[in-house]
Design a protein that fits this description.
By secondary structure, the protein is α/β, with parallel strands linked by helices. It is 38% helix and 15% strand. The chain is built from six helices and six strands, in the order βαβαβαβαββαα. The two termini are 20 Å apart. Bound molecules: flavin mononucleotide.
């Protein structure tokens, strides 16, 4: 199974990016988690530019999503919502509306913040956006509050409770792709 991981943070030492790396380590060896690194290159959405030839960063995003079996998005919270860069990329991803690459795609949302609530509002807004795009939003929530305390200086996840929640979320996303996985786990 191929999982595309999208971090909503451009920050070098982003806790959301680290969370996605930790998720990758919880996958069975037969699965791959590819971290998409094109967010910075996506231009501001302009409907006039949403035509052939598609801007290269947008084409890369659309083909990465299309090639994935599932998408895992980790979002920080900016002013109680999702970061503009992430929303912008999803706006590009949502077109053409009827056939957009997210339509029917299993997607799970997780998040980390410096505050105590773990980006819960950003996650809720992101799920709403994904539902509007027609994605199959998996019912999971991993809300990592005070994220700076959950990783060591090498960026490794050191909080067992967070790891357990992350494992549940990854399991639920995989089961969304292959429902038989749930039966095996039960
Ligand atoms: C513009 C901006 C707005 C923020 N707003 C919130 C917020 O509403 N709630 C919150 O918990 N943290 C907020 N933060 C703090 C982020 O949670 C923190 O920077 C977090 O580490 C970002 O995620 P990252 O480590 O993946 O970059 C904000 C940070 C920035 C830069």
């Amino acid at each position: 199974m191929r999982i595309l991981a999208i971090s909503g943070s451009l920050r070098r030492d982003s806790h959301n990016t680290l969370l996605l790396r930790a998720a990758g380590e919880l996958l069975p060896g037969s699965d791959t988690l590819e971290l998409w690194d094109g967010l910075r290159e996506v231009p501001p959405y302009d409907q006039d530019d949403d035509a052939e030839p598609t801007p290269p960063a947008v084409a890369a995003l659309r083909s990465a999503v299309a090639a994935a079996d599932a998408v895992l998005i980790a979002t920080p919270e900016y002013n109680h919502s999702l970061p503009g860069a992430l929303k912008n990329a999803l706006d590009w991803g949502s077109r053409p509306f009827a056939t957009n690459v997210f339509r029917g795609k299993p997607v799970a949302v997780i998040g980390a913040s410096a505050g105590i609530f773990g980006a819960v509002w950003a996650q809720a807004e992101l799920r709403k956006v994904l539902a509007a795009m027609g994605a199959r939003v998996t019912e999971v929530e991993v809300a990592v509050g005070q994220a700076q305390e959950k990783f060591d200086s090498d960026g490794r996840l050191v909080d067992d409770e967070t790891r357990a929640r992350l494992a549940d979320a990854v399991g639920a996303l995989r089961a969304e792709v292959e429902p038989a996985l749930v039966e095996v786990a039960a």
